[in-house]
Every structure is written in structure tokens, then in C-alpha cells.
Amino acid sequence: MTQKQKKQIAAVSIFSIAFGIAPAVNAMHIMEGYLAPKYCIAWGILCLPFAAAGFLKIRSTLNENRRSITLLAMSGAFIFVISSLKIPSVTGSCSHMTGTGLGAILFGPCSVSILGLIVLVFQAVLLAHGGLTTLGANTFSMAIAGPFAAYGIYRLLKKLKVNHLAAIFLAAAIGDLFTYCITGIQLAVAYPSEAGGIAASAAKFLGVFAPTQIPLAVIEGLLTTAIVIFLESFAKSELTSIGFFKKEA
């Protein structure tokens, strides 16, 4: 068996394990109507500069290299598929993977703000997953905070000369967990505890999410790493065209 065949088998195995586990265990979308209007507006306004930067970044990427549209579309589809696998975690929210780490590593976090926004709109309209009134809050946690955390971790680990597959795994996993932390804080701000205020409420929300979200973060890290291994084996020219290997160096 060749080294390339071994990589293919490893990638398929990780895909199978991840999708086999995900439905049983599954960061979070806040449901329609769960946040007061002032919070919906505030989170929406906060997302605007990131969305504008993301739009300009994607336009620049496509203008420079039209071939990148395939990987860009794949990153968006990846976010849509695995963030749609959800289970109830606490009243008003749910637990699931995000899939944003892959796009952040390949294209940077600003681009993912647009990909995530598009995914969240489709999920709210077609799947009743999340909501239009809570779109700003969900976009900030899943499409902005998580991707920026994942990209920051990835770049830091690369500067520290950490193995690039380990860096990808940790970036995707930590990005997922950071999304969950931001959502917990968003819910705590909207519903502070009578005894202890926002801090106590945040601890409660994060404690409820943790049993499902921590395993999911590990799964997302493995799945993202498997996809990168697959792309390095079969789409090396596409990765080279978007400067991925140059970033590695």
C-alpha cells in the first residue's frame, strides 16, 4: 500500500467516525425571538464592519485568482453541512460544530464572516435553525469570533514551528470552543442571573454547553485536519494558487 493510499484511507476513516458521532453528540445558534430587540440590533451593528471587510476580501481573492472559487465554495458548504447537525443543549440554543476553522485557515477570518453569514441566513430560512432577528448575534459568535480565534491560533502555532497538521487541529478545535464561549456570554448578557449577574449566568450557560461542545470541538479538529490532508493530496495546485503553502512557510 502506497503512502498516498494510506492517507486516503485515513481521511475516509476520520470522515466516517466524525459523521457517525456528530448526530449523537453536536457552536450554537440562538433561536428566533430569544433576544430582546436592543441586543439583536447591537450585535447586528457590531457585525457590519467585519461583513464589509469580508466582502472586499472575497472580491479581491476572486479577482486575483478565479480558481479559488472552488475552494471558497467548498469551505462554505462545509460550514453549512456540519453546523446543521444539532442537538438541544439549553433552552434557547443548541450545540453543534461550526466548520469555520477550515475557511479561516485557507482564506483568512474576514472571508469567513461572509460565508458564515450566508450559511446562517439559509439555515434560518430553510431549516428554522437560528433566526433572522438573532442573525447578528449568531453571525458574531460563529462567523466572526470563532474564525478570528482559529486563524490567530493557527498563525501563532506556525510561528512557533508546530507541526502544521497539529496547528490545524488545534485552530479548528479552539475556534469551535471560542464560538461556544461567545454564545454563552451573549446569552448571559441578555439573561443575567438574579444572584451573581452576568458572570454567574455565563458560568451556568457554559457549564451546560460544555459536555457536548468539548467532544464536538475535538471532532471538528479531526475532521478539518482530514480535509486538509485530502486537499494536500488531491488539490495541491488549488492550495498553491491561494497561497496556502506560502503561508505555511
How does this structure look, described?
With 249 residues, the protein is mainly α. It is built from 10 helices and 2 strands, in the order αααββααααααα. It has a two-stranded antiparallel sheet. A hairpin with a 2-residue loop joins strand 1 and strand 2 (93-95).
Average of per-residue pLDDT values: 85
Percentage of helical residues?
over 70%
- Shape verdict: globular
Q: Roughly what fraction of the amino acids lie in strands?
A: under 5%
Major sheet: arrangement of strands: 1-2
Q: If helices are DSSP runs of H or I spanning 4 or more residues, what is the number of helices?
A: 10
Major sheet description: 2 strands, antiparallel
The radius of gyration over CA amounts to 18 Å
**Would you count the extended β strands for me?**
2
How do the helices and strands follow one another from N- to C-terminus? Answer: HHHEEHHHHHHH
Distance between the termini: 30 Å
SS-based class = mainly alpha
User: Residue ranges: pLDDT <50 for 5 or more in a row?
Assistant: 14-27
Using brief descriptors, characterize the structure shown.
single chain; globular; two-stranded antiparallel sheet; 2 strands; 249 residues; mainly alpha
Question: How does the SSE layout of this entry go?
Answer:
Blueprint: H1 3-25, H2 37-64, H3 68-83, E1 87-90, E2 93-95, H4 100-107, H5 109-126, H6 135-159, H7 164-190, H8 197-234, H9 236-241, H10 244-248
Antiparallel strand pairs: 1-2
Helix pairs in contact: 1-8, 2-5, 2-6, 3-4, 3-5, 4-5, 4-6, 4-7, 5-6, 6-7, 7-8
